[in-house]
Amino acid sequence: MNSEVQFIGWHGIAVLLVYAAFLLGMVIYAAARRDIRDNMKSFYLGGGGLGAFLLFFTMYATQYSGNAVIGYAPKAYRLGYAWLQSIPFLVMVITGYLLFAPRLHIFAKKYNFVTPSDWLHKRFNSKSVTLVGTLLMCYGLANYLLEQLVAMGHAISGLTAGAIPYICGVLFLVVIMFVYEWFGGMKGVAVADTINGIALLIGIIGFLVLTLQHVGSFAETAQYIAMTAPKKIGVPPLSTSINWLSMYLLVGIGAAVYPHAIQRIYAANSENALKKSLSRMTWMPFITTGVIFMIGIIGIMAFPGLQKAPSEKLVGLMANVIANKSVLSYWMMMILYTGVVGAIMSTTDSVILSLSSLISNDVYGRFINPAAAEKDKVFWGKVAGIAIVLLLLIVAWKPPATLYEIFVLKFEILIQVAPAFLIGLYWQRLGKKPVLLGMLSGALVASVMTFMGLRAPMGIHAGIIGLLINIIVCIVGSIAIPLSKEDQQTAAMIDFRKVTG
Amino acid sequence: MAPKYKEPIQYPWIWIVIIVICLIGVPWYLPQGTIYPIIIGLPYWAFISLIASIALGLFLNYVVKNCWDMEALKDDKDEGGSDI
Questions:
Q1: Predicted ipTM?
Q2: Which terminus of chain B has a smaller tally of CB atoms within 10 A, N or C?
Q3: Domains in chain A, start-ordered, CATH in brackets?
Q4: pLDDT in tens, A189-217
Q5: Which of A91, A494, A495 is nearest residue B57 as measured by Cβ atoms?
Q6: How many CB contacts within 8 angstroms connect chain A with chain B?
Q7: Global confidence as pTM
Q8: Tens digits of per-residue pLDDT, A270-294?
């Protein structure tokens, strides 16, 4: 992501400082409570008491990172109208939730789950399954976090026209996030996400209005593209359509089983709040990635002939044009960039919180010191979160020349825990050994394919191929290996008669 | 006895409708390279895809509202729940 804009310099720094101070003030006012820091569920899930409003905004701002603005517009520019898929594939995330959220929500309330690994432990009662699942989630999340940290540095550097260097920008935002997470936990993150989500929405919609006014119209652009670049507007080849369908599965299932997404199911204060939030989330792709799609398409006529690297700066190029038109436009672009920085922050803070919870609840609390008090677990989770971010900052600052690929795997790895939820919630026969073998084989296949450069052979993503193998191993293995008496008793927990009450 | 609670996974028709909408929304079945007519700035196939996306959104809202009620389990408990 490189989106340096010429129009913002010291104004950008001032806006950023004011915004950060506002964010901190609001979080400390609305969410900071001493008692939440002594209890895992209070700290990591807001006590499981998030209502529809906060839940919706934290889901929205967490799911849409800055990449949905800065990265998706250039994709529309290069791919053309086929990038319209960015709307439905994000609507499909709600489909992904419908596969498991209704049932998982009631189990989470019944058994006081804090992390996704709590489900693995309860359902399979196997240290190996819990440990492997936890490590896969931590690994995928850490890489996702690294990506967000890099994006954060570029966004700040762009917002201030390089006045704040990349690494200083990252450090500044990381410190802000740690302060509000330390004091407010999940509730703090949800409040910050709400402010960031609103800033992002205002920025994006203002950007579209000003683009239509000053850069070009959507209808004229279609005629222009039909004459000059028909491949970008004609029905795409079959391989693009297959890739499009593969995206439905990858994003639809992958984004719904992100650990921080699962924890938002746990954090909902009621089924009704969860339902309301998901219903509203259905429409967010239209006014977020849909708007960005339109902007990217208009860019084809406004800035014709950009190659891949220059096209990555499309949002910055358009923002420059718009900002020079009037004072109002200038400040609207400032809001846009603040919203983008906010969007990256709100994805990053949720990932850090989720990673900390997995380490404190599952790695520390389950394997290192099972007798630890809740307060100690929360403390060590925070310390581990800071340590991981510091390590990742070193990688983000000076990326290693070799083995860089190990930091690329995200979705491909995270999605491999999906069968333990999607099948495990409904099929008592699913055994711990097939689940373990499935997770490992799916992760291995997806990783090897990615390292070999086969990220999407024939349009099908490596993560999806790994997931298919994972599912086959789970099903065939569970049919072939009968459950022991003990495992049958453990699996019986998915019987609803034991859940209610 | 039929369970009182509602859960989307119980209804196969929901998933069939979702698959059909998805398949209609992806232009795999249309002749490659065709553009016209252009409707509200979108080539016809992208317009179809947009309508399919809206239909998917509407349908998912319907499902969330009408086919998801696990809270009913609390009332169901005394009657034995379900045998899933």
A1: 0.91
A2: N
A3: 10-408 (1.20.1730.10)
A4: 999 999 999 999 999 999 999 999 988 89
A5: A91
A6: 145
A7: 0.91
A8: 999 999 999 999 999 999 999 999 9
